[in-house]
Automatic annotation (TrEMBL):
Key word Transport present: yes
InterPro entries: ATPase_E_C, ATPase_V1_Esu
Protein name: V-type proton ATPase subunit E
Lineage, top ranks: Eukaryota, Viridiplantae, Streptophyta, Embryophyta, Tracheophyta
SUPFAM superfamilies, per the entry: V-type ATPase subunit E-like
Similarity comment text for this entry: Belongs to the V-ATPase E subunit family.
Pfam families in the cross-refs: vATP-synt_E (PF01991)
Amino acid sequence: MNDADVSKQIQQMVRFIRQEAEEKANEISVSAEEEFNIEKLQLVEAEKKKIRQEYERKEKQVQVRKKIEYSMQLNASRLKVLQAQDDLVSSMKEAASKELLRVSHHHHTYEHLLKDLIVQSLLRLKEPSVLLRCRKDDLHFVQSVLHSAKEGYALKAKVHPPEIIVDHIHLPAAPSHHNAHGPSW
């Protein structure tokens, strides 16, 4: 073999080795690229999972805050309603106290009220004999409506009229102004 053939053969071997090296380098590069992409995908997925978990945690915190705020608003509105009810009851009590002081001055209305109160008491007691106690100022009115109260009770309860004895011990006199009806409820 001459130098040209040897040189040609060496050139051929160098090209072959170079081609093999390039193919191996390409394989290594492709393999490295694949491993890089797999590793990158795993890291991205892990971070996405962390972000989702953080988002869910924050979403739960927001929901808890919303529930707490809703509950606080609901309680505040309940308190407002209760306060309004209390104010209304207080004003109704005050109006009733003032009206009670005035009703005794209208004799016909007062007699009718006393009769209804006696009938209502008899219906609650459901006794054949009752001891009735009243104020000394009301004794005349009570005696004037006693018979009709007995009859009214007997008619409503479908029983014989009860025996009503008016007590000689009297209740205290009427208050002189509307705040004297005792402590507020």
